[in-house]
Amino acid sequence: MSSPLGKLTSPVSLVVDAVLVLGFFLFIYSLVSQHVPSNDPKMVLLWGGLTSACMSGVFWLAIQMFRVVLKAQLAAKKK
Predict the structure, then answer these.
(1) Which of 1, 55, 50 is CA-nearest to residue 24?
(2) Residue burial 51-76, b: 16+ Cβ < 10 Å; e: rest
């Protein structure tokens, strides 16, 4: 269990992750903002943004877990 997998991130992968998370945020915001029970644009922006930020954080964690599992599976396949 103590076999190192090496470096799991690179500058390119961080940029790709940032673009994916930003796109996911905008997509979720466009969906969620329609369901905020308010007519005040500031409240729609606040609650739509907070909800999208939370869901984008979970998406970022999922990307990182996928990257680690994929790297471990590829390393196990080479052995």
Answers:
(1) 55
(2) bbeebbeebbeebeeeeeeeeeeeee
Q: For residue 33, what are the CA distances in angstroms to 22, 26, 47, 78?
A: 16, 10, 8, 46
Tens-place pLDDT, residues 27-41: 999 999 999 999 999
Nearest 5°: CA angle at 44, between 41 and 21? Answer: 125
Token readout for 1 is 């269990």
Contact, 29 vs 48, CB < 8 A? yes
d(CA 52, CA 75): 34
pTM recorded for the entire structure: 0.84
